[in-house]
Design brief:
The protein has 19 helices and 24 strands. The protein is globular and about 80 Å long. It is 32% helix and 22% strand. It has a domain of 95 residues: Diaminopimelate Epimerase, Chain A, domain 1, CATH 3.10.310. Strands 8-15-16-17-18-19-20-21 form an eight-stranded parallel β-sheet, sandwiched between helices. Strands 3-2-7-22-23-24 form a six-stranded mixed β-sheet, with helices on one face. It has a six-stranded mixed β-sheet with strand order 9-10-11-12-14-13, with helices on both faces. Strand 11 and strand 12 form a beta hairpin. The two termini are 42 Å apart. With 553 residues, the chain is α/β, with parallel strands linked by helices. It binds zinc ion. The site of zinc ion has 5 residues, from loops.
Amino acid sequence: MTQTEIADLIVTNAVVRTMDPAQPSAEAFAVAGGKLLAVGSAADVEAYKGATTRIVDLDGQAVMPGLMDVHNHHGIAGLHNVFELKFPDTASVDDICTAVQGYIAEHPDAEWVHGSIWGSQLLGELSTSGPLKQLDAISGDKKVILTDDSHHNRFANTAAMRAAGIEDDTPNPPSGGVIVRDEDGRPTGLLFEGAGVMVSKAAAKADPMTTDKAAACSADAIKTMHAVGVTAFLDAGATLHTLNGLKELDDRGELKIWASSCMLINDHVFGAEQLGEELFPHREVTRSAHHRPDFAKIFLDGVPMSYTGAFLEPYLPSESHGCAHKGHTTMPYAELEHWLLHCAAKGINVKVHCCGDASVRFVLDAVAKVRAAGHADTLFHVAHGQFVNPDDIKRFRELGVVADISPPLWFPSILVEAMEAVRPAEDIARIAPNRSLAESGAIISGGSDWPVMPDPNPWTGIAGLITRADPTGQHPGQLAPDQAISIDQALAAYTINTARALGIEAFTGSLTVGKSADFVVLDRDPYGVAPEKLASTVVRETWFEGEKVYTKA
Ligand SMILES: [Zn+2]
């Protein structure tokens, strides 16, 4: 056999887990032009060695494909990290006011103070008049807007509410959302969903986002992703600035990750200026070698904890919502079907936020119409989907709908406790039906929902998929343990399955000849340790297109 191709790079003496069922493991691989030239035994790969080939001997360390995140909000994560006041979600109202006061002292020219994140445990206190008085007293005419841990709600001071036109007699926004009031009917500063967006929009008007700023946010977030081994992601709620920022980074030669983004069709969270039809024309303009704005995003409901997830059966009885409350979707079925058909006709894939099982069923019904209309290839994601009616499980595979299982809510946690408080026990008993979905042949694809969840590290989710137990050990027990999946299925959810979910499996997602050389070097072989040991896996190196983009210090 004659070898004409010479490798730029040979990685050898490794335990290579390829995530390619045709050749699940190997010792070495060769890379040329950023792509895999050969994968196999050390001797096989040696044949591609030339005078200029760089040899990386890993001394038995484990290697697998770069990890993938099917659902994050990387631009917001970068924005929080680079440009905003940060305080921990355990902060008290006093702590938060002290932090805001400090920020104002350090940034005397800032008209607006953006801060995050306050924990949902403050909701009761923030519904009273005291905290607003306290915040107003230290902020004066500076406008302050603070985001909560669900990223759906805000706490704003009086100056910020005034700037958004929120006065004592302002009604709740027709788009959905609540201006929470005290017993005298005055706003308390606590703003749910659309009401918070009113203030976000006023802030954006006063202090506009720019392409350079968006690029800086993306660059910071990508640095964080590289450090946890992520080499591909889908931003689940991109604004025009996000799209422009990613394109700008790629033009500068700095986008060293496969970035996909969802153009927002509706918005109950972000305060985006352009939506749907206004964003779609920017799709081709912001496309680049590493950026694919190939998805749209629809929020079809809210979250169970605030009784805004849309369910087939009622919530547990409550004082606030009575006995028959099932939640409701953000749009009627006909509008959803219209959007899915419209996007499919334009070649745009769609991710739909569905927290309740009624929303999930709406999407499956609408996708059935899209498939019947002849659109076989459009990708559809049910995002979150912790609650799926058993009758609907098999429809994911039948209709080719991806289960975007994000964030990791398949083991005991504070968020799961919050859902247990509002949903019947039989719903909780079959929460996050990952095994049923996987066994039915559906694609389950892992995501972080970072920064809604504080950490984009995939290993917590991977470990929990297998054990259904809290990898941090803070919350005892297992959650619906019959829905545990295997290590193969769990790793696939964060690699090849997500590549398929993003429509990029032809060139990444597994260590297969011809694909991009996107890989991570790990401190342990995921197949060689107990599942409980997976959560603390450390990524030592991350490589993208054959180039090392991260080394652990
Ligand atoms: Zn999200």
